[in-house]
Amino acid sequence: MKAKMTVFVCCLFVCAFLQVSHQNPTDHWTLLPHIMVVEVDGTEGQQPLSCLELPDEHMARDIKNEDIFWRKNGREEEQRGNTYLLQLEESLGGGNYTCHSKDGSLLNHTMVLIQEDETIRRILTKSDQGYLKCSAPNYNGEFHCSWTWHSNRVGKVAFIKAQRVSDSQCSVDESGQRWTCSSGQSNFNCSVDDSGHRMVCLEEQHCPYAEESQQIHISIYLRTEHFLLENYSKRFYLSEIVKPDKVSICQVSTTMIKWSYPSSWSSPYSYFPLTFEIAQLRGRCKKCDNPCTDSKAIKTSRVSSTNICQFEVKHKIKAVCVRAKDALCNSQWSEWSYLKLRRHKKKKHQQGKN
Fold first, then answer.
1. Tens digit of pLDDT for each residue in 54-73?
2. What residue range is the signal peptide (predicted)?
3. Which superfamily does CATH assign the domain made up of 132-240 to?
4. Closest residue by Cα to residue 247 from 279, 221, 199, 283
5. Strand 178-182 and strand 187-192: pairing?
6. Per CATH, is 27-52+67-116 categorized as 2.30.30.90?
């Protein structure tokens, strides 16, 4: 009898554990007005949706509970009443849900997005810099982030949050392309370009001459046409992602070249100095997509300057490449600037016949 009781208690414990550890949905929250995010764990479950939140709304609109019907993505559902039970299975269940009165008038609408465990990534592909690649052309507070959609799951941006502190409030304009995040310490304005895989942000109150005390935290919520939602985040200081634009180079003489700071770089240059790398190429790689990266340089030099730079190249050099990086931080190099050198050919004097 005692052994049976032990087995019975163990069964109760195991069953209770399974009920607690496998709950679907695990949570739900509001992303934007009329947009609900349902977090799931892959098991079957239900999530209730309410058409009219307050009972008084039924009386005010003279609507009977049994007269309310629902549509999912425009198709009428069998369920009736003020509460709709959303069926969840794995990552399925998302969609546009609308509730209507007996005459078909729209009463309410909710977009349901499904968010799986954060370890599962289906929407973006990962590069050597992670899922988000961010860079800043200078220290003026502007930065860019880009991403690469998975070939089978192209989607769109559902929400953007940019902040240095955790109490920022974010909103989006009617176009759904421009986002504003504000707090007592910083204001960010972000916009997504027409391609849908790149955004530009500007921190309005950023001071380029002050040392950054807090990192910028970017969160981008992306959704697919099947209402799957994923959150991609990145933290950084501007000094970690700063990447100068390409330098402008020209040939001064047969063996002399010069270049200048990118026009977009922060000034004064004495406060924001750059280091330049010069690669000298002996041959011309006609089939190379990028001669600066696909060719082997015979000599590479580095120069630091706060003004227009000049550099003497060897006589047998056919082309040069120049790039720049912040001299004071371990940040990214700019893209290479390529210059094909012009050489004066010696004229052959032919001796005339008398």
1. 656 555 566 788 889 999 99
2. 1-23
3. Immunoglobulins (2.60.40.10)
4. 279
5. antiparallel
6. no
